[in-house]
Amino acid sequence: MVKWKNWFGTGCKGEKLALSHSTHDKLNETIEMLERRKVALQEKVAIENDRYKGFTKFKNKKAAMECLRRKSFYETQLEQIENCRSRVTDQMRRINSLTL
């Protein structure tokens, strides 16, 4: 019976508001987690770049190519994190517009 009331808009609005707050908190936690992962990956990219420079200085092509491969992998992960972060912020905006 409660489902029917929620589907047709006669349900309790307090429940909807509480749900939006908990969802908003979860989305904020997700954004914070993505930011931490982004910082960690940026550090890894910087480390791989330094290692690449060191290996090229000593003319170790194989190790330098491995560093570039890992660096590009980390950079693609950074792009995926940015895409995920933008989707989460869009969801937050939609939830805010629904509750207002």
From TrEMBL:
Keywords: Coiled coil, Endosome. GO terms for biological process: late endosome to vacuole transport via multivesicular body sorting pathway; vesicle budding from membrane. InterPro entries: Snf7_fam. One of its GO terms (cellular component) is multivesicular body. The keyword Coiled coil applies. It comes from the Eukaryota. It holds the Pfam family Snf7. The keyword Acyltransferase does not apply. It is found in: Endosome. Residues 24-51 form a coiled coil. Belongs to the SNF7 family. This is Uncharacterized protein. It comes from Coptis chinensis.
